[in-house]
Design goal:
- This protein has about 200 residues and is α+β, with helices and mostly antiparallel strands.
- The protein has a single domain, classed as Umud Fragment, subunit A (Ribbon), CATH 2.10.109.10.
- It is built from 3 helices and 12 strands; from the N terminus they run αββαβββββββαβββ.
- It has helices at about 5-35, 60-65, 175-180; strands at about 35-40, 55-60, 75, 110-115, 120-125, 125-130, 135, 150-155, 160-165, 180, 185-195, 200.
- Strands 1, 2, 3, 4, 9, 10, 11 and 12 form an 8-stranded antiparallel β-sheet that branches. A 4-stranded antiparallel β-sheet has the order 7-6-5-8, with no helix packed on it.
- Strand 11 and strand 12 form a beta hairpin.
- The longest helix is centred in the N-terminal third of the chain and has 29 residues, at about 5-35.
- It is globular.
Length: about 200
């Protein structure tokens, strides 16, 4: 058997390197598509919990196995009405939006689940009142003056839907404007922040 030339050895090493890179890239994309996805915070709607530019990891599996819970921080596709703060139906100006538009937006949002299907919700001074009682929310930045911070007329969340609000109540366009979100539009739960280093930790 003839010895391999340097050219053949180099070609073999290059093919091996390309194969390793392709497999690694495929695994990384597969993990991101199926298990965990990184997400960059695009706005100040989740301040003080999350700052603009902060990065989180999103668990894409748990909502396939179970239901989101109140207080979960979630990445999702909002209704198309979120693109221009439009509700899916006419409603009194002193109530949150009770129904989303039927189509979804292509944009990814991150907010906190504040109410689930069957809950009754209203908002006073930026605080959530759930089923008649003010909910403890130590993580929020409340606001009593913003356009959607006082919505005292109660609505009921439809089964299979989730009402989303930003922690920065005066600077968040959320379900108060464009309604609750169906489960099949949820991408996953943000569970840890990994950048910047000074803010690494569980959510």
């Amino acid at each position: 058997m003839a010895p391999r030339s340097k050219e053949q050895t180099s070609r073999g090493s290059l093919i091996e390197l390309v194969t390793i890179v392709a497999v690694a890239l495929g695994l990384a994309l597969g993990i991101q598509a199926l298990l965990v996805k990184p997400f960059r915070i695009p706005s100040e709607s989740m301040v003080p919990t999350l700052q603009i530019g902060q990065r989180v990891l999103v668990d894409r599996v748990s909502f396939r196995l179970g239901e989101p819970e109140r207080d979960d921080v979630v990445v999702f596709k909002p209704p198309a009405g979120a693109d221009d703060n439009a509700c899916g139906e006419r409603h009194p100006s002193d109530s949150p939006c009770p129904r989303p538009t039927p189509k979804r937006s292509d944009t990814n949002f991150i907010k906190r689940v504040v109410a689930v299907g069957g809950d009754r919700i209203k908002v006073i001074d930026g605080h959530v009142y759930l089923n008649g009682r003010r909910r403890p929310e130590p993580w929020i930045r409340s606001d009593s003056r913003c356009e959607i911070c006082n919505l005292p007329r109660e609505i009921r969340i439809p089964r299979g839907y989730f009402f989303m609000m930003g922690d920065n109540r005066g600077e968040s366009a959320d379900s108060r404007y464009w309604g609750p979100v169906p489960k099949n539009w949820l991408i996953g739960q943000a569970f840890v922040t990994y950048w910047p280093p000074g803010r690494i930790g569980l959510l």
